[in-house]
Amino acid sequence: MKKEKTIFSNIELDRIIEMAWEDRTTFDAIKFQFNLSEADVKVLMKKELKFSSYKLWRKRVENCKTKHSATRVQGIERFKCNLQRSITNNKISKR
């Protein structure tokens, strides 16, 4: 069965790359949101990044235990950090 190639907008590409670089975001989250497997993300990153950046990313992913849901520490069930609001300077609080 041949896989259909999806064309992403620049905003979606930027978000996929951002999620791939984040340590806490699993490949499962990328699959859920963009329907890209880990292998698809690797191909996309190789195509979109400079080769040296791609090598750095691959080395980082291989050593990161939080990128794969099976190797994550128990208790991490979210995709964003507790400090996300202060990092992004989001002033809107949930009430």
Q: Enumerate how many helices there are, as a single number.
A: 5
Provide the helix percentage: 40-55%
Quantity of strands, as a count: 0
Radius of gyration: 15 Å
Q: What distance lies between the first and last C-alpha atoms, to the nearest angstrom? A: 48 Å
Q: List low-confidence stretches.
A: none
Mean pLDDT: 77
SSE pattern = HHHHH
Shape: globular
What's the layout of helices and strands?
Elements: H1 10-21, H2 27-34, H3 38-48, H4 51-63, H5 84-87
Verbal overview:
By secondary structure, the chain is mainly alpha-helical. The protein has one domain (10-87). Helix content is 51%, strand content 0%. The protein is built from five helices and no strands. It is globular, with a radius of gyration of 15 Å. The model has no long low-confidence stretch (mean pLDDT 77).
Could you provide a short overview of the structure?
The protein has 95 residues and is mainly α. The chain has one domain.
Key traits:
single chain; 95 residues; mainly alpha; 5 helices; 51% helix
